[in-house]
Amino acid sequence: MTKLVYASVLAIAASAMAAPAFAQDNQECGRVTIAEMNWASAGVAAWVDKIVLEEGFGCQVELVTGDTMPTFTSMNERGQPDVAPELWINAVKDPLEAAVAEGRLITLSEILTDGGVEGWWVPAYFAEANPEITSVEQALQHPDLFPAPENAARGGIYTCPAGWACQITTENLFRALDAEAQGFDLVETGSAAGLDGSIGNAYARGEPWLGYYWAPTAVLGMYDMVMLPFEVDVDEQHFVECISVVGCPDPQVTAYPVAEVFTVVTQQMAENNPVAVGYLETRAWGNDTVNAILAWQMENQATNEDAAWWFFENFPEVWGAWLSDDARTSVESAI
Amino acid sequence: MASSCWGLPDFLCGAPEMSGSAMRAMRRTIDTGFRDMVRGASSYIDAATAPVQSFLNTLEGLFVNTPWIVVFLVLVGITWGTSRSWKITAGAGVALIGIGWFGLWNDSMITLSMVTVCTLVAVIIGLPIGILTARSDRAQRIITPVLDVMQTMPSFVYLIPVVVIFGIGKVPGMIAVVIYAMPPMIRLTNLGIRLVDREAIEAADAFGSSERQKLWNVQLPLALPTLMTGVNQTIMMALSMVVVASMVGVGGLGRNVLQAINNQFFTIGFLNGFALVAIAITFDRASQAYGKRLQRHKEVSDE
Fold this sequence. Notes:
- The complex is a heterodimer.
- Chain A is of the alpha+beta class.
- Chain A is 49% helix and 19% strand.
- Chain B has one domain (30-300): MetI-like (MetI-like fold, Orthogonal Bundle).
- Classes of the chains: A alpha+beta, B mainly alpha.
- Chains A and B meet through helix 3 and helix 8 of A and helix 2, helix 7 and helix 11 of B.
C-alpha cells in the first residue's frame, strides 16, 4: 500500500517537473551565451537582450562577465560566448577584420545608432565659470587651472585606465598637443573605478577636472560634463594609423572620430540560431536613450537587470519597434 | 518566478527583504551624506595629505633616481644584515638582477618605495594598538572584531570611499594598503606580549620594575620573534595590496599587471608577477631568518 502511495507521489512530481520542459519544446531558439561587458551601457544591453530572447523568443540565455580583449579573444579562439552585444570596434580593429575575413566572427548590427562619442571633457560648472576656455588647445594654456593630484605645480590630464585602447590614443594626443611643454602631466587612473572616482572626487569638491571620457556612460548621465572640442577636424586615417598605435613617432592633433559600436556574434551562432540573430540584427538604440537609462541606473544604484526592466517599462516605443507582434506581446506580459 | 517554493505561502518563500524604495532611500542618504562630508572637509583633507604626498613623491624619487648599483648594494646589504645567510643574499642579488634584466627596475622601485612606506606606517600605527590590546582585555574585545572586518572585507571595497575622499594616486593607495596590511601587526603584537612568560613578569615585578620598564625591557624583547612575524606578514600583505591599489592610479608593477590583464599580454603579466614574487620571497626569507636569529638569542638566554 505504501509503495503505491510513493509511486503515485513520484509520478505526480515527475509530471509537474516535466510540464515546463514540454512548454519549451515548441520554441525554436536554443541556448545562447551573451557577454555582459563590465561597462554600464553594454551591461544593460546584455540584460535587454537576455530578457527579450528569453521572454519573446523562448531562448535559454546565460550571461558571462566580459571585458573587451578577454571576450574578443575567447569568441575568436574558442567560439564562446556567442554574442558580444556592444563591442567597440576601434579597440580590436585589426584582429576583428582578420576574424571576419576568416569567417570566425560576424559583425551584425550597429547597436548604438549615434556611435560611441569620445573626447576630452571638463565639468559643466567649470565650463560656465571659465567661458573663455572653449577648446582643448585653450585649456592647455592654463595648467594652473587643472592641478595634478600628485604635483600641484603641474597641470593634470586624467587618462584612460591601464591597458585600454583609449590610453594609447590619449597618450598620443597628449604628445601631439605638446602638452608636457605647456606644463601638463598625464595622470594614470589605473582602472575605470579610478577614472570615475577622480571625476566623482572633483565633483564632490567642485574642483576642475580635465581628461578623457566617452559616451554613452552612467558617469556622463550623472555628472554634467562638457566635451571640449579640438580646434582641428577629424583626420580618420591619421587617427587609425598613428593616434591609436602605441608610441607612434609623429602624432598630429586630430579630433576623435565617432566610434563604431557593433553587435558581434560567432559563426556558429549565426548559422544555428536564426531567431536570435534576426532579433539582434534589428535591435539598436540611440545615445539619448542609453544615457537616460544609465542616469536612472546610477541615481538608483540599480543593477543592470533593474535598468533593463526600467527600460522596458519606460521606452516601449524603442523596443517595440524591434519585435514582431507576437514577441512584443510576450515581452509585455513579462514586464 | 521560476522557484516552486514547495507550495509554501509567499511570505515564507522569499527571504524577508526591505522594500526597493526604502533601500534606495537608504543608499542615497548615506551616499549624499558622505559626499557632503567630503565637500565640507576637502580643504582639511588636502592640508592633511599634502605632507604625506610630498613624502611619498620624495621617497619614490629617491628609489627611482638613485643609480641602480647603489640601490642594489643597499638592498643586498640589508638582506645580508638581516638574514646572515649566503644563500638568501645570493638569491636576492639574482632576483634583483633578473628584475633589471627584464626592464622592470623602475617599476619595481616604485612598488618597493610604496611597500616600504606602507609597512612603516602599518607598524608605527599597529604596534601601539597591539600593545594596547595586550594590556587591556576590554580593548581586545573591541579591537578584535574591527580587525576581523578589516581582514575579511574585500579589499576593493576600501578603494571606493578612499577614492571619493582622497582622489586617485599614491595617498589613497597608501591608505588602502595600510588598512589592509595592518591587522596582522596588531594581532601578532598582542599575541606576542600575551605569550610572554608569567614568571619573567613576576621576576621583573620582584625587582621593582615600573610598567614602562616592564614593557620595554621585558615584554617587547621577549615578544620580538612574534613581532617580527607580524612585520613579515604586514610586508607580504602590503605587497599584494599594492597591486590592487594600482587600480586607483598607484604606479609600479601593479599597473603593468593591470595593463596585461586588460590586453591579455601573457608574457608581460607573468614577468611582472614574477618580479613581485621575487621581491616577496626576498623580503619573506630575509625577515624570517632575522626572526629566527632573534629566537635563537632567546633560547640561549633561557638556558
